[in-house]
Design brief:
By secondary structure, this protein is mainly alpha-helical. The protein has 20 helices and no strands.
């Protein structure tokens, strides 16, 4: 895995960028991106590249059918329905078959004689399926024109910078860039900087927090109260810097090829409520569900009871999107219920409290939310929750204290880096003549330290690869 990461950064990426910029004709650059992206996916998933090609062909045809029969609304609705159903069926078969079968077996014991099917999950299928559906829906809504060039459309679906773990890029957001973008040095250099920052967040912070969480989660029953709390806070930092780091790498790579992907994270741990947290966390997913599920269900336009139902439906689906397991349903409903409580009762009262109380509440809500996200075993989940308040009668065990002290510098760095403090301080020196040289030095340092860390230690794959 370490070799694959270094191979991607120092060979694959360099070769693709070289091919891309050596081609003077901008129309052919999308073809290079499409071919290289499919090759990239096929390298890791040689079997499931056919599934992706099928998805590309299918949704390309659906988009063209809707565009060609725009006047026939009834036919367009049928095509849209077929597109949504088939895309969801493909996602459902590969992601949820085992979950549905095991759930039915728990309800109907006579089904236990049949072995639950084990279907490997294609990497990134949740992300590119949602992108494909957004394309067909955008064309149906007249928010974008159907793409006539199948290779351009293939480039949109398979675009390797954000293919595996997002952010989810809606077609209407980059439709113009697919056909008419103008790369420039400033955009390219900012892309390199963002890529280096994202890589450092993943390798230098998230991976270290993963090691601390691994130790503290395994010994949760004997860690003591403080040990368990530090453990779940470490996991909170791990998942943030893991996913935020990947997103920033993807956005940075996109800029290198002339694309501007929307921001996916905006310092979520400084939120003052669960509502604000989800305006800052995985923004592309929240936007997708709002535009393509919540609003079509009626949003807040059909009274409070219907709005509550719509929110719970959206958040149950959000949980299921993350994984085929009941703990993700619990996690989704945890936020669904919290958001309903905040919207109709708590939010106005929270705003009257001192800001430090609001921030503490927002951070605790997020941290506690990661418990059902992580634990698939309900008993283990319950035991860990109990350890947060009982801790086996200890405040902190000797072993947990040793590990927490060892990782204390990284915990402090993670806490500071999860706020805009460093960014705001650094922005004050934007007009200074030495700023460009500082940027270059910091990028090189980030790449050097990240590479050294990858070579010297174990490698943890991105958490969101599994979704």
């Amino acid at each position: 895995m370490v070799f694959s990461t270094l191979l991607f950064i120092f060979i694959y990426l360099v070769v693709v960028l070289g091919l891309y910029y050596l081609i003077p004709n901008r129309q052919y650059r999308n073809i290079v991106l499409c071919v290289c992206s499919i090759f990239f996916y096929g390298w890791g998933e040689p079997v499931y590249v056919l599934l992706m090609l099928f998805s590309i062909a299918l949704n390309y045809v659906f988009g063209r059918m809707i565009e060609s029969d725009r006047a026939n609304q009834r036919k367009c609705r049928r095509v849209l329905t077929a597109a949504v159903v088939i895309n969801l069926l493909l996602l459902g078969v590969f992601k949820y078959t085992g979950f549905v079968v095991t759930t039915l077996q728990s309800i109907f014991p006579f089904l236990r004689s049949f072995a639950a099917p084990v279907i490997p999950l294609p990497i990134g299928i949740s992300f590119y399926t949602f992108q494909a559906m957004s394309y067909v829906i955008d064309v149906y809504r007249c928010d974008a024109h159907a793409q006539k060039n199948p290779l351009y459309f293939g480039a949109y679906i398979s675009l390797f910078p954000q293919l595996i773990a997002g952010p989810i890029v809606r077609y209407k957001d980059i439709a113009d860039a697919l056909t008419d973008r103008h790369e420039n040095i400033a955009q390219f250099s900012s892309g390199i900087k963002l890529f280096a920052v994202g890589l450092a967040k993943k390798v230098l912070i998230a991976n270290q927090m993963a090691e601390l969480w691994k130790v503290l989660s395994n010994g949760a029953a004997s860690n003591g109260v403080i040990g368990s709390w530090i453990g779940i806070i470490a996991y909170s930092f791990q998942i943030y810097f893991d996913f935020c780091g990947y997103s920033e790498m993807a956005i940075g790579l996109g800029r290198m090829f002339g694309f501007e992907f929307l921001k996916n994270f905006d310092y979520p741990y400084i939120s003052k409520s669960a509502t604000e947290f989800w305006r800052r966390w995985h923004i592309s997913l929240g936007t997708w569900f709002r535009e393509y599920v919540y609003i079509p269900l009626g949003g807040n336009r059909k009274g409070k009871p219907r709005q509550l139902l719509n929110l719970l439906i959206v958040w149950m689906l959000t949980g299921l999107w993350h994984g085929a397991s009941w703990n993700f349903v619990i996690w989704g409903l945890y936020y669904g219920v919290l958001l309903c409580i905040e919207k109709f009762f708590l939010l106005n009262r929270l705003k009257k409290l001192p800001k430090w109380i609001q921030h503490t509440y927002g951070f605790l809500v997020a941290v506690l939310g990661w418990i059902p996200f992580y634990f698939t075993d309900m008993r283990a989940m319950g035991a860990f929750i109990a350890s947060l308040f009982t801790g086996g009668g200890l405040l902190i065990s000797h072993d947990a204290l040793v590990y927490c002290i060892a990782y204390l510098p990284v915990l402090i760095i993670a806490a500071i880096a999860s706020t805009p403090l460093v960014k705001n301080i650094y922005a004050r020196f934007e007009a200074k003549s030495w700023r460009n040289w500082a940027d270059i030095g910091l990028v090189l340092l980030a790449l050097l330290l990240s590479t050294a860390s990858l070579v010297a230690g174990g490698y943890n794959p991105f958490i969101y690869f599994q979704f």
